[in-house]
Design brief:
A 7-stranded mixed sheet has the order 3-2-4-5-7-6-12, with helices on both faces. Strands 9-11-10-13-14 form a 5-stranded mixed sheet, with helices on both faces. A two-stranded antiparallel sheet has the order 1-8. The protein has helices at about 10-25, 50-55, 65-80, 95-105, 105-110, 140-145, 155-170, 220-230, 250-260, 275-285, 310-315, 320-330, and strands at about 5-10, 30-35, 60, 80-85, 120-125, 150, 175-180, 190, 205, 210-215, 235-240, 245, 265-270, 295-300. α10 (about 275-285) links the parallel β13 and β14 (about 295-300). The mean pLDDT is about 95. The protein has 12 helices and 14 strands. By secondary structure, it is α/β, with parallel strands linked by helices. α1 packs parallel to α7, α8 (about 220-230) packs across α12 and α9 (about 250-260) crosses α10 (about 275-285).
Length: about 325
């Protein structure tokens, strides 16, 4: 007889807190570090209550020094801990870029496998929350370029908790991108206790025969609205949530685009050098002869994310996604 799984209804940010709580309770090696993550619970309250529950030696408020506490976490990870560091906004990660790209991502190779770096770097990202300049950056592709660090990005509460636990248990560094726009935009049933979502595996959200739509993070709900709109017009879209940006679930992407022959990629990062470029290269390499139309990208523009009044003009919308779907259908 199967035992019913107990669940609770959580937002995405609450699911992240639940994942951190689960692993802090299970492993003494899990340590949280970041600016204002203790008493204040972090800028988005993702660590709310955890210092009170686990103490100041496991939930550590750090000085304002991203390079300093990311570097400290690398040393801790190489010596048996499993640190999870919080970057308040992805745009604040750049002072720690050298630590991540020169040390965290390379230590396993540099030591011929004698040391690994089992650490997680949490980074809220993206536009749509009316935050000032730099707070809204979506620059994931500058991290997917470097082998040695994995990059994940959940779009819903269930995946957020499962990916967080998987990231903490991973032997290598994981950049955990958190879509700020989705933190409290919806709720989902999330299982109590421990479960994982496999890193490197995407998910098919809708079945379709006409167009493959690929997205992740905060753009998944945007793509879903366009897919539903096109369904009313008789176009069946297969919507894929990548969930992991490096390594990409190549089998899921290729199987889908070989079936539909048409592709639309939706991401809010700048178009030039974005993950969409890698996906198009993958499709050209593995499924070129199946294509009925050139792949389309719906992205942010090649400008810094603008101030509040123009933010909505920068972000992809269901209308722009629907127009791209119609374009590949008419090609």
């Amino acid at each position: 007889m199967e035992t019913a799984v107990q669940t609770k209804t959580l937002t995405l940010v609450q699911a992240i807190t639940d994942g951190l709580d689960t692993m802090l309770a299970e492993k003494n090696e899990v340590i949280l570090l970041g600016e204002d993550i203790g008493k204040n619970g972090g800028v988005f309250r993702a660590t709310d209550g955890l210092q009170e529950k686990y103490g100041e030696e496991r939930v550590i408020d750090t000085p304002l020094s991203e390079a300093g506490f990311v570097g400290a976490a690398i040393g801790m990870a190489a010596n048996g801990f499993r640190p999870v560091v919080e970057i308040q906004f992805l745009g604040f990660i750049y002072p720690a870029y050298e630590q991540i790209m020169t040390h965290a991502s390379r230590l396993r190779m540099r030591t011929m496998g004698h040391y690994t770096v089992p650490m997680v770097i949490r980074a809220p990202y993206g536009a749509g929350v009316r935050a000032p300049e730099i707070h809204c950056d979506s620059t994931e592709s500058i991290f997917t370029h470097m082998p040695g660090i994995k990059v994940v990005c959940p779009s819903n509460p269930y995946d957020a908790k499962g990916l967080m636990i998987a990231a903490i248990e991973d032997p290598d560094p994981v950049l955990f991108l958190e879509p700020m726009r989705s933190y409290r935009s919806s709720r989902d049933e999330v299982p109590d206790g421990k479960y994982t979502v496999e890193i490197g595996k995407g998910k098919k959200l809708t079945e379709g025969e006409d167009v493959t739509v690929i997205s992740w993070g905060a753009m998944v709900p945007v793509a879903m609205k366009a897919v539903e709109e096109m369904k009313d017009k008789g176009v069946q879209c297969e919507l894929l949530d990548l969930r992991t940006l490096y390594p990409i679930d190549k089998d899921l992407v290729i199987e889908s685009v070989q079936k539909t022959g048409r592709t639309v990629i939706v991401h809010e990062a700048h178009e030039t050098g974005g993950t969409g470029s890698d996906l198009i290269s993958l499709i050209n390499d593995e499924a070129f002869l199946y294509q009925k139309a050139p792949a389309e990208r719906v992205t942010g523009f090649d400008t810094p994310v603008p101030y509040f009044g123009f933010e909505n003009h920068y972000l992809p919308t269901p209308k722009r996604v629907a127009a791209a779907i119609e374009k590949v259908m008419k090609f």
